[in-house]
Amino acid sequence: MNGLTRGQLAQRAQVHMETVRFYEQAGLLPKAPRTAAGYRKFPEEAVDRLMFVKRAQGLGFSLREIRELLLVQDGHTDTCAEVRDLLRKKLSLIRDKKAELEKLEVHLQSALRKCNRVLKQQGEHAEGCPVLEQMTAEEGDA
């Protein structure tokens, strides 16, 4: 039986063997047939599929989203329109996260300025921290 063992597949795709096992269990890789000795033999296409998964992860797609992309790719029906819709959804999520991170950045910069002011006024061993006091007060308000 031709094909790649789990170890060979992992090596060719530059991932760990456990990653191959996990992706197979998660449905990102089709179950490989077994030899008479019980070894799994993956087709050559499995290397491309693993590389696709890695590239999709690099673009920020979750495993669930990658599974959706693979289903579209495997189904070959309305592929481009479905991928476009998935990309729009992902881009919207990324933009929302970006907005949240920008708000967090503003809050952290403000907190850092407060710390710097106190330390400048009272020295490196200032007693009390306005940021911790503010966070404690906000916790009690919640």
Give the arrangement of secondary structure elements.
Layout: H1 6-13, H2 17-25, H3 45-58, H4 63-75, H5 79-122, H6 130-141
Helix pairs in contact: 1-2, 1-3, 4-5
Rg on CA atoms, Å: 25 Å
Assigned CATH architecture of the domain at 1-61? Orthogonal Bundle
Strand content: under 5%
User: How would you state the average pLDDT, rounded?
Assistant: 88
How many helices does DSSP assign? Answer: 6
Describe the structure.
The protein is an all-alpha fold. The chain has a domain of 61 residues: Multidrug-efflux Transporter Regulator, Chain: A, Domain 2 (Orthogonal Bundle), CATH 1.10.1660.10. The chain is built from six helices and no strands. Helix 1 crosses helix 2, helix 1 packs across helix 3 and helix 4 packs antiparallel against helix 5. It is elongated, with a radius of gyration of 25 Å. The model has no long low-confidence stretch (mean pLDDT 88).
Compose a concise summary of this entry.
With 142 residues, this protein is mostly helical. The protein is built from 6 helices and no strands.
Question: Features of this protein?
Answer:
mainly alpha; Multidrug-efflux Transporter Regulator, Chain: A, Domain 2; 142 residues; single chain; 6 helices
